[in-house]
What does this fold into?
Amino acid sequence: MSDQNSYELLGLTEASTFEEIQAARDRLIESCGDEPQQKANIEAAYDAILMERLRLRQEGKIKVPDRIRFAENNPEPAPAAKSPPSLPRPDWLSSLVDTPSRDDILWPAVTFAGLALLGFAAPSLSLAVALGASVYFLNRKENKFWRSFLLTIVGLAVGLGLGLTVGQLLIPQGLQAAWASPDAIAAAISCLALWVVSSFLR
It folds into this structure.
């Protein structure tokens, strides 16, 4: 069987790719059913084309793509950079710390900033309203009133302790600044502590 007849039998041309040759052979083998002679003719044509292609490659008449000729030179893709393993957080910490949305940070920030400013005029009123606001913002997240109340009390204790210390350092005992008193500074720092608690805890 001549090479030209082989191409014609498979319905191909000399410009057909290897994938097209394989596809034509598979398609024709399936279509001939139980006719062994026709299958043998198709296999013979397929083999003749492959032998012709091999000879042409050896003679340098068919260019072999570099990815096939020098497969070992193809660079392997760099492995993806691994992120360092994160340390597991204890369950109690995961259930306590919140990942707030922008609104969960913004609205409490505006509220507590206003209350901190009010604290310079009326520290006691500022703290009373800040306590209620903190319980509200915390309870809104998990709907657990007593937990919200407890976290608010802890935030208030930390804020007052830090605030009174800073207030005493900034304004020595017996001196009254024109713009603030130790109580006002303690109220402002307590509002900051309550904002942190109500925004980042749950």
Q: What stands out?
A: Residues 145-170 form the longest helix (26 residues).
